[in-house]
Design brief:
The protein has 268 residues and is mainly α. The chain is built from 12 helices and 5 strands. α2 crosses α4.
Length: 268
């Protein structure tokens, strides 16, 4: 994994570094690391949503507790204890819940065009997302995310403590747009037409792997290129439907799979 000098294409200025991740399949994926400015914008938007929800919860909960405690005095103690628990869940559970349901994004992150992923480029698991966000307790200390801000400034990929523990990083959403574009721009493969190979049975990770290979194959040494194509093909072969008289190379089949995927459902 390597980081390059800051880019200048972000709407928020030169806040994103280019990060190259080497996958277990020996394929390089490029991501633009989200800068502190875009992360602060996302946090501000999410905090605004939390404040609105908290006000509704606080006013409504206090009114309900007041009504119930008039008849059952001890209900006030339990009611406020439950209300405190709900505020805790609102603050910490909000981020984890959205990141789990929205694949690494909260409303604020979606607004700012950023997303949380693993250092390996894979999505976070629910447990990793929960652990990452529980560390906000420490990141907040002593106030106003001082520890989190200091950690982001001192680390190369702008990581707060939660990211360091969970092995995650925040990248710009445009990174995924750059990866997805390959399904729409690669030239049609030369040679005889192929029948359906079963591209619809491939997972998003497998499709992204093919896409990354097709983007970078011309930059590879021939022996590396064809070895990598063979390795990817062997991994995918159990899911494919190949003609009995197939004589096509792995490279040619991967091209055909990319175009079949584009013609049927595209890559999302």
């Amino acid at each position: 994994m390597s980081s390059n000098p800051p880019g200048v294409g972000s709407p928020l200025g030169p806040l994103a570094d280019k990060l190259t991740i080497e996958t277990p399949e020996q394929t390089a994926l490029d991501f633009a690391v989200a800068g502190i400015g875009s992360r602060f914008l996302a946090l501000a938007f999410d905090t605004l949503i939390q404040i609105v929800i908290g006000l509704v919860l606080g006013i409504g909960g206090s009114f309900l507790i007041g009504v119930i405690s008039a008849a059952v005095p001890l209900a006030a103690v339990w009611g406020f204890a439950i209300l405190i628990l709900l505020f805790f869940l609102l603050y910490f559970g909000y981020f984890a819940l959205f990141e789990i349901l929205w694949n690494g994004q909260t409303p604020g992150k979606r607004k700012a065009g950023i997303r949380v992923i693993k250092d390996s480029g894979r999505p976070l698991t629910p447990a990793e997302s929960i652990g990452r966000n529980l560390l906000r307790i420490v990141d907040w200390l002593p106030a106003f995310y001082a520890v989190g801000m200091l950690s982001a400034i001192l680390t190369k990929e702008n990581k707060r403590l939660g990211d360091l523990v969970a092995g995650s990083l925040v990248v710009r959403e445009s990174s995924f747009s750059d990866l997805n574009r390959g399904w729409q721009t690669s030239p049609a493969p030369a040679g005889p037409a192929l029948s359906s190979l079963g591209a619809e049975r491939l997972s998003p990770d497998e499709c992204a792997l093919i896409d990354s290979y097709l983007h970078r194959r011309l930059d590879l040494e021939p022996h590396v290129r064809f070895r990598m194509a063979d390795e990817i093909f062997r991994r995918l072969r159990p899911k494919l439907t190949l003609p009995a008289d197939n004589t096509l190379s792995a490279d040619r089949i991967l091209e055909a799979l990319s175009h079949e995927r584009r013609a049927t459902s595209g890559y999302n």
